[in-house]
Write a structure and sequence with these properties.
mainly beta; five-stranded antiparallel β-sheet; three-stranded mixed β-sheet; 3 helices
Length: 171
């Protein structure tokens, strides 16, 4: 293995693994200006668990990459986790480092294990791409933020047969 191949591994080792990575950077504060996505989840299956919103660089290599590696190498990674409210439409705000295009994922972590399980959890992306067996193309899962708040509606997909899809109306 070349020294260049080892460098990202060493960098990842310098940042301790924690589910809190990116949370301080992603936190929206009252009366704070600047770019942020305000996300409305659409098509929730139920009110169990948490919602986890994450922002990544809008390129195939870094989209859904390990958060430790992204943070260690100084790349964009933001995370917001909130419990689902008992009623009403949830809204998640995530602060961005600047205006631009970012890949965005939203997980309905129904079993609170902090990872996606296609049999239990719901998943959605900015741009609401149709999901297959792998991660969507980063261009279809990205959104562009302006200098202030940018609203996004992300449709959640849940297990449907052998794949995942949005829930049918009335379910």
């Amino acid at each position: 293995m070349s020294p260049l191949a080892i460098t990202p591994l060493l960098a990842a080792a310098l940042v301790p693994s924690t589910p809190d990575l990116g949370k301080a950077e992603g936190l929206c504060r009252a009366n704070e200006s600047g770019p942020a996505f305000v996300v409305e989840p659409v098509g929730l299956k139920d009110r169990t668990g948490k919602l986890k919103l994450e922002v990544y660089p809008a390129n195939e290599k870094d989209f859904l990459a390990d958060d430790n590696l992204l943070v260690s190498t100084g790349k964009v990674f933001r995370r917001v986790e909130v419990p689902l409210p008992a009623s009403g439409t949830p809204s998640l705000c995530i602060r961005l480092p600047g205006p631009g295009t970012y890949a965005v994922s939203l997980l309905h972590d129904r079993d609170n294990d902090r990872k996606f399980n296609w049999k239990i959890d719901g998943i959605g992306f900015a741009g609401n791409p149709k999901l297959g067996w792998g991660k969507p193309n980063v261009r279809k899962a990205s959104a562009t933020a302006g200098s202030g708040l940018t609203a996004l509606r992300i449709v959640l997909n849940y297990r449907s047969g052998l794949g995942v899809a949005p829930l049918r109306q009335g379910t």
